[in-house]
Specification:
The chain is an alpha+beta fold and about 270 residues long. The chain is about 40% helix and about 15% strand. The longest helix is centred in the last third of the chain and has 24 residues, at about 200-225. The radius of gyration is 18 Å and the shape is globular. One of its GO terms (biological process) is monosaccharide metabolic process.
Length: about 270
């Protein structure tokens, strides 16, 4: 996963020296940080609902707890994404015990996400859903190709989990998914769907929305004819500019502002 400490020069806004540029907040109070991050997680589910990433009981986004990092927050089972509030979230540990919350949790969410969180201490958020284009692309058994500026974010930055044994029900398969993810920001689960990760919910969700869109673009392009790929060095340069945690965090901010303006009930 790409790590940059500052925005690439081409992302700096005109007038940056005069006007404020959105930046991730910093906290000295862990309780305030926890509440803020839970609200961002609830917003992530609203974003998934907006993009129609909801399929019955399937799909989950998780957030490592900032106070007890061996636990993580996840969506309650059976609550539609567009209705989830910060107070609805459930916190579980890596053994599957519910630490906080009043709802049951999808077992697949535990089996997959607990193992990714354990394998990747740099990852604070994991996003997964069974989307229309993610499902379609995943059955091809291939990676996204560098056919656009956006797709370059995933160039040599994605894994492929090529084993499908049915609904993920145990931690062993979660371990294999985490191994396929490796140090990348995303993994394609063959015949299943997509997973993206990030150091924040904002980055993980923004990456997921973009990856699903890139799946759609490649499906359309492959159906129309042969692909013209971006050269290796240019693809890597583009990934470095667009794939940093700070830039991907920034990609979520306009969407978050729109969600909050439309219906801020997720903050509750």
């Amino acid at each position: 996963m790409i790590e940059n400490n500052q925005l690439d020069a081409q992302h700096m806004a005109i007038g940056a020296s005069k006007f404020r540029i959105p930046m991730p907040p910093k906290f000295t109070n862990k309780e305030q940080q926890r509440q803020y991050e839970k609200q961002r997680l609830a917003a992530g589910f609203r974003a998934f609902a907006l993009h129609h990433f909801d399929e019955g009981l399937a799909g989950h986004i998780t957030l490592r707890d900032c106070i007890e990092p061996d636990t993580f927050w996840v969506n309650p089972l059976g609550v539609h994404f567009k209705m989830i509030k910060a107070t609805d979230l459930v916190r579980i540990d890596h053994n599957g015990n519910i630490v906080e919350g009043a709802h049951a949790v999808n077992n697949a969410a535990f089996a997959i996400h607990s193992r990714v969180h354990m394998a990747r201490p740099d990852v604070n958020a994991v996003a997964h859903a069974h989307t229309k284009y993610g499902r379609a692309f995943s059955c091809l058994g291939q990676l996204l190709k560098p056919i656009s500026q956006d797709a370059c974010i995933f160039y040599e930055n994605q894994g492929l989990f090529s084993t499908f044994t049915g609904v993920v029900a145990d931690k062993d398969e979660g371990d294999m998914i985490a191994e396929s993810l490796a140090q990348h920001c995303a993994v394609i689960l063959q015949n299943h769907g997509l997973i993206t990760v990030g150091s924040s919910v904002d980055a993980a969700v923004a990456n997921f929305i973009l990856m699903d869109s890139c799946c759609q673009s490649q499906l359309l392009a492959q159906a129309a004819g042969s692909l013209t790929l971006i050269e290796h060095d240019i693809a890597l340069k583009t990934r470095a500019a667009n794939g940093s945690e700070l830039v991907t965090w920034g990609n979520f901010q306009p969407l978050y502002a729109m969600l909050e303006d439309r219906d801020p009930s997720f903050l509750e």
